[in-house]
């Protein structure tokens, strides 16, 4: 299963706000949404995931559930994203089988190698810089940090950059070889920008392909 290059990580003060933002993202051309509800009980997450699946199915948008791999199968989402302290990807894979996407969070070269050895479908590597959306933030990578890790890795596994990324930072990140970009606040503030972000990400990717041969 191919994975989209732009990931919208859902935001909101309540499950309803998350759903409204997911709807807005899908309406404006988001190809992948990650439902990321924190400090919420599992039953509420399941109910919200069911509604998110209904929205994303209508727009043919990929839906990733953060942390809860069993909910993925229950609502027939497209996959799960596992943080560094969440379930091991191998356990999630055994439960989900091969038809679902599994992504993992990484901050270091070692994290990436560990996830690759567990056959994840993509890696969310970050943070690029400081972001308020995550507690206990890992050391900030910056452009140089990504470059160093990508140079060492030389992997086919898609690397998604995440962590406070702004519009003018998309091109430099894509140019050093990341597969895609995950955004939260920058999209929530203006959903109309999604087509612009998609164009920037895909244009850089096409440019790289044309000049590789």
Topology, element by element:
Elements lengths: L5 E4 L5 H13 L4 E4 L6 H17 L3 E5 L2 H7 L3 E4 L6 H8 L4 E6 L2 H9 L4 E4 L16 H12 L5 E4 L7 H6 L4 E4 L1 H4 L5 H17 L3
Parallel strand pairs: 1-2, 1-8, 2-3, 3-4, 4-5, 5-6, 6-7, 7-8
Helix pairs in contact: 1-2, 2-3
What does this molecule look like?
The chain has 213 residues and is an alpha/beta fold. The chain has a single domain, classed as Alpha-Beta Barrel (TIM Barrel). Helix content is 44%, strand content 16%. An eight-stranded parallel barrel has the order 1-2-3-4-5-6-7-8, surrounded by six helices. Helix 2 crosses helix 3 (69-75). It is globular, with a radius of gyration of 16 Å. 41% of the residues are buried. Mean pLDDT is 93; it is low at 209-213.
Keyword list:
TIM Barrel; eight-stranded parallel beta barrel; globular; disordered C terminus; 8 strands; 213 residues; alpha/beta
Short description:
The chain has 9 helices and 8 strands. By secondary structure, it is an alpha/beta fold.
Largest sheet: 8 strands, parallel, barrel
Q: Helical proportion?
A: 40-55%
Following the backbone from N to C, one meets helices and strands in this order, namely EHEHEHEHEHEHEHEHH
First-residue to last-residue Cα separation: 25 Å
CATH topology: TIM Barrel
Please, how many domains? Answer: 1
What is the name of the CATH class? Alpha Beta
Overall pLDDT:
93
Q: Please state the structural category.
A: alpha/beta
CATH architecture: Alpha-Beta Barrel
DSSP helical segment count: 9
Order of strands side by side in the largest beta sheet? 1-2-3-4-5-6-7-8
- Describe the oligomeric state of these chains in a short phrase: single chain
Radius of gyration: 16 Å
CATH level-four homologous superfamily name: Aldolase class I
* Gross morphology: globular
């Amino acid at each position: 299963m191919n994975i989209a290059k732009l990931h919208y990580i859902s935001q909101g003060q309540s499950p309803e706000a998350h759903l409204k933002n997911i709807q807005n993202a899908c309406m404006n051309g988001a190809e992948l949404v990650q439902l990321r509800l924190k400090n919420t009980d599992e039953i509420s997450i399941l109910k919200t995931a069911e509604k998110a699946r209904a929205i994303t199915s209508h727009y043919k948008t990929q839906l990733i559930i953060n942390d809860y791999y069993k909910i993925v199968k229950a609502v027939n989402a497209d996959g799960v994203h596992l943080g560094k302290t969440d379930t091991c990807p191998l356990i999630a894979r055994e439960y989900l089988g091969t038809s679902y996407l599994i992504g993992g969070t990484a901050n270091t070269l070692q994290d990436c190698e560990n996830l690759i050895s567990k056959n994840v479908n993509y890696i969310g590597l970050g943070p690029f810089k400081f972001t308020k959306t995550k507690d206990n933030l890992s050391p900030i990578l910056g452009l140089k940090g990504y470059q160093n890790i990508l140079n060492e890795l030389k992997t086919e596994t898609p690397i998604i950059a995440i962590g406070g990324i702004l519009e003018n930072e998309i091109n430099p990140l894509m140019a050093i070889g990341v597969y895609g970009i995950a955004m939260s606040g920058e999209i929530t503030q203006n959903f109309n920008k999604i087509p612009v972000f998609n164009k920037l990400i895909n244009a850089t990717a096409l440019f790289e392909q044309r000049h590789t041969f």
